[in-house]
Design brief:
Two copies of one chain form a homodimer. By secondary structure, chain A is an alpha+beta fold. Chain A has a domain of 124 residues: Roll (Pnp Oxidase, Chain A), CATH 2.30.110.10. The N terminus of chain A is likely disordered.
Chain lengths: 212, 212
């Protein structure tokens, strides 16, 4: 997410890109970003598919249709799951020093399926609880057929790394008087106004939503 | 991005997920989403790295440091570049029918480098023009050393597909009277208030920004 060239230690410091491997940092990034991109290999070729992930302790989970080619192709393989939050655009005095303020986490590991029906339902409830607190008991209960039609995959948060860049532009001294605006333009993701379904009767309480 | 099980044609219709392969749809999704996740294979293992992409005609481009392990690993290989816009959360009366309103495009192809210095500069100018219209001529000009330190990679938009889901929840008739709110909660990404760098003098014009 940057075009910086790490030619020396000074430059690396100036980049403001921090690599991290501690669990707290990686968990915080995963918890802030439900949208993940999962990479896997089919017939030697890389594939990247978007999905929603949620974390429980030291594992991430995602789910989909049991008929999904993506989920069938990835089960039992080594995959890479990456989440990225783009927090802002970093504008410098030269094109070269422009960059992105971002947080990303990359996980590598073996993909397993959750197969026990009761455990599957517990995982789906947890996903719902994280995103829509209090909604699960209000819903029409899951059926055995729906549980069967849903595949849940999981990967350990074991081999993982994070990258964080959150610095102001750091132009070299000779550029700092160049007469062009420099700074950060934040990027913000927020929830919009809920739009009820046409067949949703009035008077029902709006859901609590926590997305990231 | 959905747990729907496509068990029959009716269900497929109800899913509201449209696959598309036409250029106009794919170009529009790429143009709306500069953040891409690029998948590649190193020693047989999938890797997924975030980057910024920009489109020119029938090609996408991305760039980074010439010292980047990611860029060196992917050059000359077959890669997968995926962009995903999450437009909203789709809340139904059952957990099973919950889904995401999203647009994604997935590109497969060989990765090549742009090597000619003049062409590299033209591509970087185009990236800047798309994101910050009018800013390039205001910047301290690129140096030959900076161009050399910047790698630009490109992939044709040739083998590509898109998926779009933008439908209201479509609960089966027997669920529609279940007394829980149903509809879409939009997700919106917007630019925040620009934060000038501490060493940015007052009075300089704010940049035009077009991110997606």
């Amino acid at each position: 997410m940057s075009q910086h060239a790490p030619t020396d230690r000074t430059r690396l410091r100036r980049m403001g890109h921090k690599a991290a491997h501690d669990k707290a940092t990686i968990h915080a990034i995963l918890d802030a970003c439900p949208v993940a991109h999962v990479g896997y290999v089919v017939d030697g070729a890389p594939h990247v598919t978007p999905t929603l992930q949620w974390r429980e302790g030291d594992r991430v989970f995602w789910h989909g249709s049991a008929a999904s080619r993506f989920l069938r192709a990835i089960l039992g393989t080594q995959a890479c799951l990456t989440v990225t939050l783009t927090d802002g655009l970093v504008l410098a005095r030269s094109g070269f020093e422009h960059s992105i303020s971002y947080r990303s986490a990359m996980l590598f590991g073996p993909v397993q399926a959750v197969t026990d029906p009761a455990e599957k339902e517990a995982r789906l409830k947890e996903m719902m609880d994280q995103m829509f607190p209090g909604r699960w008991p209000q819903l029409r209960p899951m059926t055995a057929q729906e549980l069967k039609a849903t595949t849940i995959l999981t990967m350990p948060i074991d081999e993982a790394s994070a990258k964080i860049s959150a610095e102001m532009p750091d132009d070299p001294p000779e550029d700092r008087l160049w007469p062009v605006w420099a700074g950060i333009v934040p990027l913000e993701t927020r929830l919009g106004t809920p739009e009820p379904a046409p067949d949703c009767p009035p008077g029902l309480a709006l859901p609590q939503v926590k997305f990231g």
